[in-house]
Q: What sequence folds into this?
């Protein structure tokens, strides 16, 4: 018996959301009186012993260049073999893009019940019940997993990571690596930008900003705060901003520590994707804008007047000229 | 070319979320039901576009649900699609639903199976991957673009901070999100035509569910907004730094 955590990597770096998954898996291990082990697939990955800082005692590696791209079919088979070999009773993923591709397949392969989008540690006193987001963040469901093996995907930024100094043992897992049926012909990354799904701070703009030429009010603040940028759906639909920035019920659902909404009305479908943010700030010239009801802090005012002053104040705070 | 599109029924995006029976059931009173937006706007419309490019293509729709799914599946038929299959079962367990869809798909020998990115009620984002594993097919999740070649597809999928272009031979399963296609509105001809399109109802195969919902909770209410005067935005920055400690 043990807990297995899948560490997702890109370009040799473990993703931030996977460290959260590792810490979450280690906490489950502690709760159930067992150990947490991790698996990482691909070649040339940076310091894996340091994953011990998150409470993982052992990291299984499968070093193979073919695994530097994720193929859900190939990855599932390897993770299933590893889980079986080590007798894992719980397998943990981040509920990120790759987690959403692999975990459902693994669920079928291991005949293991899956809860996706978990937001808290499981209740294990009687049975195994996991709290997850439902209705696009408007409610939670407590889902019982009734199979011997359980799979959980953890929502990014919903579990507080505590680290301590420890070293994980790194060992090679002898896996059969099938040929991938999916050929990756290109990857395209917006270099330097903070990925929205992993961001601690998100600055977001709506139709109130009038046009793409005014977006420096969003991007300048984002740069100062090390934040990702987002937008409302109409803004992406008109083409002022790229589609991947669209947050809400039909876009990306996010839960950053700070969500800064500028010129966004706060329609129910928008709120559905952002209402789990820990702190929400709203700048809107209309005091009746529904967003104020969901906000922690707000300014009723014209973004074109307020935002430059906010940006100056943040510059001062950060000691930027 | 045979395409299967998975259609689910969800509460309207403005529906009030409340629970009944001691917080064990979603309160359906007064709820208006719609086709899950990801299934309608992206999965179904993309299938229709493929059929427009290749009139020999056939689109089947599948839904797992009771008779109250019929208006939803009729609306989907009105948008496009040649016939529909409803598997007469009520379940929120992803494995159960995926197993039912896989059983239909196995018989139908489809070249493409499209699902939406996720249902906006239970937010599993799981059915597509499960169907793919049950059928031992490749699966591309969260696709934003899909182009058909002779015997393969070129698909763009979202990854952290960017996108990836994949080339995959058919058959395969794809979960669809924004970018795949543009939302359409059914026209009169489609609505009339949908009435005479076949809607086959089949009984489910016996499958053991993996999970069950024990209860629901609503998030705690917000304390209320603290408003800062527009003349003094510096105060907002101070509050975020010193009180909320988020910057
Ligand atoms: C099925 C469905 C799904 C949807 N999914 C989503 C989704 O996922 N995400 C999403 O965002 N939307 C979604 N929508 C759309 C949603 O209903 C709203 O239409 C949308 O969120 C509004 O965007 P907005 O706030 O940018 O624009 P508007 O509603 O036009 O609001 C602009 C706001 O800016 C304010 N403003 C104007 N000028 C200024 C100024 N100078 N300074 C400060 N404030 C100013 C205005 O007071 C107003 O509140 C969906 C709708 C449907 C029907
Ligand atoms: N009951 C159902 N019947 C048919 N298709 C479904 C059903 N539930 C989910 N799906 C499909 O699977 C996708 C993902 O759903 P989920 O994994 O539940 O978030 C949806 O967008 C649909 O395309």
A:
């Amino acid at each position: 018996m043990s807990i297995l955590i899948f560490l997702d990597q890109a370009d040799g770096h473990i993703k931030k959301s996977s460290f959260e998954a590792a810490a979450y898996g280690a906490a489950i291990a502690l709760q159930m009186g067992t150990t947490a082990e991790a698996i990482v697939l691909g070649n040339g990955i940076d310091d894996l012993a340091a994953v011990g800082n998150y409470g993982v005692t052992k990291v299984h590696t499968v070093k193979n260049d073919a695994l530097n791209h994720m193929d859900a079919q190939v990855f599932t088979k390897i993770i299933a073999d590893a889980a079986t070999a080590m007798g894992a009773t719980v397998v943990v993923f981040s509920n990120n893009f790759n987690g959403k591709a692999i975990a459902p397949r693994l669920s079928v392969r291991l005949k293991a019940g899956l809860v996706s989008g978990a937001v808290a540690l499981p209740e294990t006193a009687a049975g195994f019940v996991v709290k997850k987001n439902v209705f696009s963040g408007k409610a939670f469901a407590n889902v019982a997993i009734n199979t011997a093996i359980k799979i959980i995907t953890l929502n990014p930024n919903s579990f507080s990571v505590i680290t301590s100094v420890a070293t994980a043992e790194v060992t090679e897992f002898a896996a059969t690596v099938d040929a991938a049926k999916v050929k990756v012909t290109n990857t395209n990354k917006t270099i330097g930008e903070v990925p929205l799904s992993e961001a601690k701070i998100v600055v977001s703009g709506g139709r109130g900003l009038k046009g793409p030429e005014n977006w420096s009010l969003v991007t300048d603040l984002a740069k100062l705060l090390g934040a990702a940028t987002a937008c409302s759906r109409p803004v992406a639909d008109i083409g002022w901003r790229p589609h991947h920035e669209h947050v809400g019920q039909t876009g990306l659902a996010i839960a950053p520590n700070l969500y800064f909404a500028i010129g966004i009305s706060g329609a129910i479908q928008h709120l559905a994707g952002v209402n789990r943010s820990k702190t929400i700030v709203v700048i809107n010239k209309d005091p009746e804008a529904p967003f104020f009801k969901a906000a922690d802090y707000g300014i009723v005012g014209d973004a074109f007047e307020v935002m430059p002053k906010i940006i100056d104040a943040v510059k001062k705070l950060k000691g930027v000229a | 070319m045979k395409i299967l599109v998975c259609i689910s029924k969800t509460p309207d995006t403005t529906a009030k979320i409340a629970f009944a029976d001691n917080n064990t059931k979603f309160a359906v009173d007064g709820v208006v039901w719609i086709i899950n937006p990801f299934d309608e706007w992206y999965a179904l419309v993309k299938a229709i576009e493929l059929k427009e490019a290749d009139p020999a293509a056939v689109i089947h729709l599948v839904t797992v649900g009771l008779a109250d799914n019929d208006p939803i599946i009729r609306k989907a038929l009105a948008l496009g699609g040649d016939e529909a299959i409803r598997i007469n079962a009520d379940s929120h367990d992803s494995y159960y639903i995926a197993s039912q869809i896989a059983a239909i798909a196995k018989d139908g020998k489809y070249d493409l199976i499209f699902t939406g990115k996720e249902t906006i009620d239970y937010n599993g984002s799981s059915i597509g991957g499960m169907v793919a594993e049950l059928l031992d097919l490749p699966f591309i999740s969260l696709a934003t673009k899909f182009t058909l070649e002779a015997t393969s597809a070129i698909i763009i999928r979202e990854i952290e901070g960017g996108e990836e272009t994949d080339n995959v031979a058919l058959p395969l399963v794809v979960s669809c999100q924004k970018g795949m296609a543009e939302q359409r509105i059914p026209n009169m001809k489609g609505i009339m035509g949908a009435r005479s399109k076949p809607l086959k109802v089949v009984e489910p195969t016996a499958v053991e569910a993996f999970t069950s919902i024990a209860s629901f909770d609503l998030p705690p209410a917000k304390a209320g907004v603290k408003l800062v005067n527009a003349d003094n935005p510096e105060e907002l920055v101070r509050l975020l730094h010193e009180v909320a400690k988020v910057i």
